[in-house]
Amino acid sequence: MDVECDNLSTKGLALLLYITCKSCEWTQPFYTSKNLENSTRGMKPFEINYRSVMAMREIGKGYSGLSTFCGLMNITPPVQIKAFNDIQQNLSSVYEQVATNSIINAANKLRFNTSSESEDIADDSDKISDITVSCDGTLQKEVIPL
Question: Which residue has the higher pLDDT, 90 or 70?
Answer without folding.
Answer: 70
